[in-house]
DNA sequence: CTGGATCCTAACTGATACTG
DNA sequence: CAGTATCAGTTAGGATCCAG
């Protein structure tokens, strides 16, 4: 109970307006990108470029067509991806990132970095002592 | 429908192992930090340093005690915050960030930056033309 | 192949009241 | 002050089926 240090940054405590603006911006971002799949889809598109519906369904392991469809619509409405219907025999649809989607890359990178560090961090701690919520 | 460019990065298509590792890390991070309040709480603690339960309830506008309690427990289990019971008359509890929580700062900053840019971006587009999902 | 329709459940969220 | 208990509403997400 004793050996855990704490930190305090208090970056913009002295500027409430700036703080509120940043808080609102963060809530905007969360509302837009939260959920189980949005970042996953974006990362796939970053990696593979243009993809079709089925490609995304396969790379986003576990997603169902309905959910994928909904996620894609939301991303399109927010101008992060484009949807293009191709004039092929069984109709195909291509999805790709918009230039605006580049703005999400720092978020994705930060999430990945945190995930990598956190996994090693947690691993060690959980081996040393069980998580706090453990019954007894 | 025509004027929207697309981009393609295809950063690590040639290294599936690295890609999968990054994907898993991102999913870890999402599982841990997703939700309506986690980032909000972390940002508050960044800004104000040590806070008590009631402080957090007031700055995280809209949150109920039950939800706040749960979010705090999860953050504590994941070693992002510490919980300290103070020996005061009506007992008080202090919450603070752990050093490990510093790793979340790039994520938070990236989210804030994206939120700021996205708001201006979307504003203009929505004024020019309604979002895609509009009935008619 | 794309993805909508339907149904369903677990989880999240909220309001209120209550206890140590 | 710091929560937990209870009750209730909403929703995200999944399973399955089917249509263009």
Report on this model:
- Chains A, B: Pfam families: HxlR.
- Chains A, B: This is Helix-turn-helix transcriptional regulator.
- Chains A, B: It comes from Hymenobacter setariae.
- The first copy, chain A, is mainly alpha-helical and 136 residues long.
- The first copy, chain A, folds into two domains: 1-34; 35-128, Winged helix-like DNA-binding domain superfamily/Winged helix DNA-binding domain (Arc Repressor Mutant, subunit A, Orthogonal Bundle), CATH 1.10.10.
- Helices cover 54% and strands 10% of the residues of chain A.
- The first copy, chain A, has five helices and three strands.
- Chain A has a three-stranded antiparallel beta sheet.
- In chain A, strand 2 (81-86) and strand 3 (92-97) form a beta hairpin.
- The radius of gyration of chain A is 20 Å and the shape is globular.
- Residues 127-136 of chain A have low confidence and may be disordered.
- At the A-B interface, helix 1, helix 2, helix 4 and helix 5 of A face helix 1, helix 2, helix 4 and helix 5 of B.
- Chain A binds a DNA duplex (20 and 20 nucleotides) through helix 4.
């Amino acid at each position: 109970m004793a050996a855990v240090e704490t930190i305090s940054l208090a970056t913009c405590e002295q500027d409430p307006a700036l703080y509120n603006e940043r808080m609102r911006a963060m809530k905007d971002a969360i509302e837009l990108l939260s959920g189980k799949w949005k970042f996953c889809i974006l990362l796939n598109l970053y990696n593979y470029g243009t993809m079709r519906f089925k490609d995304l369904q396969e790379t986003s392991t576990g997603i169902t067509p309905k959910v994928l469809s909904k996620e894609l619509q939301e991303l399109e409405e927010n101008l992060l991806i484009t949807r293009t219907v191709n004039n092929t025999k069984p109709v195909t649809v291509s999805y790709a990132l918009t230039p605006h989607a580049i703005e999400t890359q720092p978020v994705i990178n930060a999430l990945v970095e945190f995930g990598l560090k956190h996994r090693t961090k947690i691993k060690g701690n959980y081996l040393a002592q069980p998580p706090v919520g453990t019954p007894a």
